[in-house]
Specification:
This protein is α+β, with helices and mostly antiparallel strands and 457 residues long. It folds into four domains: 96 residues, Rossmann fold, CATH 3.40.50.20; 79 residues, Dna Ligase, domain 1; 142 residues, ATP-grasp fold, B domain (D-amino Acid Aminotransferase, Chain A, domain 1); 106 residues, Aldehyde Oxidoreductase, domain 3 (Alpha-Beta Complex), CATH 3.90.1170. It is 32% helix and 22% strand.
Length: 457
């Protein structure tokens, strides 16, 4: 039986979902670089041929650690679904002579390299500047058109995003982004391979989106993600996922599969995603490409990742389209030829729709809840105002323990201040948007009160 070394770190699809599917295709050996969720840790040893933590394996260079462990078990493939381990796993696979994202993996991780590659290929994107000092941020405010977005080059989940309305905001934005990246690293949400990655940032112009011109229905955000895979250097699109509007500055609230865009619009979106992925020179990896949608058909590529989408994107695709991306990608790394879709799937190919909702302490307009509440999954499932044909569940491993106070939303910390993650199944994409809109409005009335004083943002 083939052997796979699975490298676990923060982020990505739920590790319980991933491990069971990799284990169905191979003997899986787990190298856990971050702590496993409580509900998964006990079962991991049943699913895996071996479990080793980074601490048990010893300290030192991460690539060396992965290579050494892969050789110890005789791995036929090395795999990760975490943004923070993508570069290290790609380099380890290269050294081992195994299939992987390849030497260009960093271009799909470091936003500075990514944007430079796109600039060289004429891929439409917001104007930007790479910055590593407060002085460079100040200079960017003079060179670009405000408002601007300051973001960490190696971050994920909208962490450390700061809006700069004008030059006077630059020093405070720089200081705040730095402090958030430091705290994120403490929590394990940081690049694991590149030393000093928390010091690298970009500043970009904020382009204006227009969801109304693209979607068949209301309540959608003004960007989509194209989910796909690269097979021996060839991009294979799988489907599109849509979003609800983000919470300021740009924290994702909900993702919906499939995206309710027309066939012609989807073809144009996928063509742009192909240009963006092809410009990076990837070899074998999942892809997740975010594209901003504007007026009169304009589009801008925001970013691409050399891995599948995080949160519940992978389980949503499996539910709606019947594609087990984890198993298929495992087969691909093991030298097989999975039956990837010949073209991006659409709503016509879907059986219903699915979406994931990040629970944040803000209302539908993005305003903070006036009072603190306690996370309680049973109350949410019992009282959520969803349609008769819809089903709502809570993703336990991605949610706080019941009884935990819901964190006050911090715009700079983004998804780091989430309380829970929910999964909804419905008959069509617009139903998911409708149900999630109702749930967001109802949350402060459903979750138990924590304290009587007002919450402070």
């Amino acid at each position: 039986m083939a052997k796979v070394l699975y490298v676990h770190a923060k982020g990505g699809p739920p590790v319980g979902h991933v491990l069971t599917r990799v284990a169905a295709r191979s003997a899986v050996h787990l190298l856990a670089l971050s702590e496993l969720p409580a509900g998964v840790a006990a079962e991991a040893r049943q699913w895996c041929a071996s479990v080793r933590t980074g601490g048990e394996a010893g300290k030192g260079d991460l690539v060396e650690l992965i290579v050494t462990r892969a050789r110890e078990i005789g791995a036929d493939a090395v795999i990760t679904f975490s943004e923070y381990a993508v570069v290290a796993v790609a380099e380890a696979a290269r050294q081992l002579g195994l299939r992987g994202a390849g030497p260009a993996a960093a271009l799909a991780r470091d936003k500075r390299l990514m944007r430079a590659a796109w600039e060289g290929q004429g891929v439409p994107q917001p104007r930007f500047r790479s910055v590593t000092t407060a002085e460079q941020v100040a200079a960017a405010t003079a060179e670009l058109t405000c408002p601007l977005l300051l973001k960490a080059a190696w971050s994920a989940g909208s962490t450390a995003h700061q809006i700069i309305e004008g030059p006077a905001d630059a020093p405070g934005a720089w200081a705040r982004s730095h402090s958030v990246m430091t705290e994120s690293a403490r929590l394990g949400y940081a690049e694991l391979h590149v030393e000093g990655a928390g010091e690298d940032f970009i500043v970009e112009e904020i382009v204006s989106g227009c969801a109304e011109e693209w979607f068949d229905g209301t309540g959608w955000g003004d960007y989509v993600s194209v989910e796909g895979v690269v097979v021996e250097g060839v991009f294979r699109p799988v489907c599109l996922s849509g979003r609800m509007p983000t919470v300021a500055p740009f924290t994702e609230r909900a993702g919906i599969t499939p995206a309710a865009v027309g066939i012609e619009a989807q073809s144009r979106i996928v063509a742009l995603a192909r240009r963006a992925v092809d410009a990076l020179g990837l070899e074998n990896c999942g892809t997740h490409t975010e594209i901003k949608l504007g007026e009169s058909g304009r589009m801008w590529v925001i970013e691409t990742a050399a891995r599948f989408g995080g949160a519940m994107t992978v389980p949503q695709i499996e539910e709606v389209f019947g594609l087990d991306l984890v198993a298929m990608f495992t087969d691909q790394l093991l030298g097989g030829s999975p039956d990837w879709p010949s073209q991006a799937l659409t709503s016509e190919d879907a059986e219903g729709a699915a979406g994931s909702l990040v629970v944040l302490a803000v209302d539908g307009a993005g305003a903070p809840w006036p009072h603190r509440h306690v996370w309680d999954s049973a109350s949410l499932i019992r009282s959520a105002p969803i349609g008769a044909g819809s089903t709502l569940s809570v993703v336990g491993e991605s949610s706080l323990p019941d009884g935990t106070p819901v964190p006050v939303y911090d715009p700079a910390a983004g998804a780091n201040t989430m309380a829970g993650l929910c999964l909804l199944s419905a008959d069509r994409p617009q139903t998911v948007v409708r149900d999630f809109t109702a749930v967001v409005d109802a949350l402060p009335h459903i979750l138990p009160a924590h304290v009587t004083e007002e919450a402070r943002a």
